[in-house]
Amino acid sequence: MLTYSLRRVLYSIPVLLIASFVLFAGVRATFDPTARLAQSRDPQVQIRERERLGLNDPLVVQYGNWLKNAVHGDFGQSATSREDVSKMISRAMGNTLQLIIIGAVVSVFIAIGIGVFSAVRQYSILDYLFTGLSYIGVAMPPFWFGLLAIEFFVVQHRWFLSVGLHTGDSSGFDLDYLKHLVLPVATLCVQIIASWSRYQRASMLDALSADYVRTARAKGVPRWKVVFKHALRNALIPFVTVVALDFGALFGGLIITETIFSIGGMGRLFYNAILVGDVYVVQAWMILVAVIIILFNLCADLIYGILDPRIRLA
Amino acid sequence: MRTEHDLGDAEPAPFGSPVAAEPMTIGLVEEAEPVARSQWQLFRRRFVKHRLAVIGSIVLILLIILCFGAKYFAFYDRNQQDLLLGPTSPSKAHWMGTDQLGRDTMTEILYAGQVSLKIGLAVALFSTLVGTVIGAAAGYFGKIVDQVLMRLTDLFLVVPAIAVLAVAIKGFGKLQFFADLGQTFVIIFVLAALGWMYIARIVRGQVLSLKEKEFVEAARASGASSWRIIFRHILPNCIGPILVNATLSIAAAIVTESTLSFLGFGIQPPATSWGNMLSSAEGNYNQNTHLLYFPGLMILLTVLCVNFFGDGLRDAFDPQAKH
For chain B, which domains are there? Predict the structure, then answer.
């Protein structure tokens, strides 16, 4: 297990370095942090600023400097507000983590629940209903779901709230927070629940028709034990991979969700940064999210290794 | 969006493979098999059995005809405003209502559909072509090409696609060459350029298993060049997974484009697509909700139909595939 974990960790380092360099180069080629200064009367201003920010160095040198600072937690200053990017990100991270952790947990449980139920009661009315809903869930653009949810649950029925995560200065875990949380989490998760539940159903069906399940039933193991202990444990292995692969999509979904629901998190930070062309925020955001996703994939690989001994021994 | 995931390792159906088909026709006497069916007939029968797929393809064809023939089918002129009328709910005169300027929403939806469908179809076409060639090369030649391809896909998996696409559209849109070709082209280019990896991986998997087969060995022994083997012998046998994934990538491209346009990174007004129609409808809660419903319904309908069509194709190509 230790060699397996170590190998996974070591492999993710070059991926991370290459990914961050490609992203760095791409963002630099797209945005010019001194673009606004081009309009100033004194042409020297832009030249001096470029010199100060080190934009005339070769790209690799710039990347090296950036990486050196980034490792120390310094992502530079916002090109528009002059605020420290690291501060902006740590402020945004709070809201985002709430959304993403709650969203991921909710999606995993609902998807497993639906998947297992549909597999155990294959071809029942509810199975058909879930199948139909999952087709719609996959086909529906999440942002449209968000807009419809606001229209129906906030404007027409006033059951939930749609701006931010708290009303006024209130904070903490209370009814107000829950009312704010339901719709963004639903918007973030609807597509993912739809596709994950299909996966869980398929892998559960596979597991249920396996020989060891027949053996267990023949031995007289109670049905619930066969389903949850023998079949589900094996059906979870492919599910873990799918969850890990789709985790990046959750971060993409944040951009949509936080924009629609005006939540000051990472997604909105990125959205605003792109609109005003704030290079340093975009750059730090992309690379940070890449790190998070790689770390998450790493965790998934390790869980995978725990669940399936064949993988860690290979 | 990853219903196609399990196809990668599936045993390819010997569809259209000359090696598989020939012994059958030679070995059988005509009378012994009263209903001889060609591969195409079998394929069609399996497809027609999937009723939703048939409905999906009919609706899809209708949609394409209506949108691209909007000039002839729309009841109103696209730019015909009626400021005094303003936004109205659906009525007999305007089936989907009118917008703030009193323009007919249905007319606008048909024209916007041209952009959305064009992007979906073009992205699927280009990413499939590029992905197939690169995937086949990676699978057949292995080594460096393979390594580069797999690492590229790894890279793309670690950043949210929407974020990369938003930056890339900005980046390429800035270049004079792309600016001249128009925003639709930039979006098609970026979506295709960053979307071929998935199909490449699938083709690579197929080619890896097919290249060990006897008919490839026979072709190689009779002196066929590598590319001839790839294009004439291997790829025709992967046509199923390729077509199924091409279909599903139409749906993915339409949703991605609408999301980008909704956020303001995609199609810019005054040009319209279903996505940016929704972004101008955002905030119209409580009143004029029809502006919110119809463009979204069109996306939903199109993507549903495309997915059903893809499912039908998959069933038809690979009857053993499980669900």
Answer: 39-84+94-317 (1.10.3720.10)
